[in-house]
């Protein structure tokens, strides 16, 4: 059963038919606990694709379904991590990751706090739970953003170049951390990246998009054994 299904999906920002759509004719099936990476040059439509799955943007052609239902807006069971984590500067790390729960339910309980601590530990942030965001490196802040998204326990996690602002070493470190998080708590993931290495390291399948606006070049199965 597909978790996410795209059939002939496209989007054009400009109604002028002389201007090609940002994305067109995308067919994609993402299964439960599958990790799909999307690679391609800047401007090829990766973010547009992600925003349509996230329900932040309406497709102008084709159909996006999540859990068998047409997407008609953002949903709680679909988490999103953007390039910059936008942590709240006046809350410490722990309160930041708990914030969406408070925002959503008005409160959180002991169990939520325990889960937050466990996820922070898994992300190597145990010692930083009481620190303020500006006391953390960019890489750590990005990990906090990922923990925050995971804490809501989304069934699907969409990540738009979450590591692109980081240097190569930090990136590699986070990649491995993410991989271990993934193994502890399997998630269905769509992950946008510039880095083929990152894609191959993390993904089960890699969707390659072409520089020609909005077209899919290839869908590659990465058959790497998971450690
Ligand atoms: P990528 O994520 O691969 O860099 P995007 O999905 O951001 O690509 O952009 C795809 C194309 O759509 C680009 O040509 C970009 O300029 C255009 N585009 C993106 N967002 C908008 C927007 N809000 N309004 C108009 N054009 C946009
Ligand atoms: P704001 O309303 O200030 O834009 P939110 O509280 O909606 O911010 O979201 C803050 C962060 O929490 C997001 O960047 C995202 O990482 C995470 N988040 C929000 N909604 C969800 C959700 N439904 N599932 C997973 N993570 C989410």
From TrEMBL:
PROSITE patterns: ABC_TRANSPORTER_1 (PS00211), ABC_TRANSPORTER_2 (PS50893). Belongs to the ABC transporter superfamily. It comes from the Bacteria. The keyword Transport applies. It comes from Marinobacter lutaoensis. Residues 4-227 form the ABC transporter domain. Transmembrane segments: none annotated. One of its GO terms (molecular function) is ATP binding. This is ABC transporter. Keywords: ATP-binding, Nucleotide-binding, Transport. The keyword Electron transport does not apply.
